[in-house]
Amino acid sequence: MHKLCGYSYVVVHINCLLNYEITSYDLYRGSDALKRFVTIIEEKLLTIQKDLSTPAEIIIVPRDLKEYNEITECWI
């Protein structure tokens, strides 16, 4: 049977401009690797969920904003 002895992870954030940023990473070896990994991943999950729940700012050029403000019918 396989016994976990270590782990590695990387959390990468990508924004609307397709810029990538490594926000956290970890490499660990030890007999408590599984317990430590689960604890850290659960913490990271909360951080990621909080970040994703924040609405992103709309990036729009002035010409498109003018058109958006003047439109009277929705195409949906």
TrEMBL record:
Superkingdom in the source lineage: Eukaryota
UniProt name for this protein: 6257_t:CDS:1
Organism classification: Eukaryota, Fungi, Fungi incertae sedis, Mucoromycota, Glomeromycotina
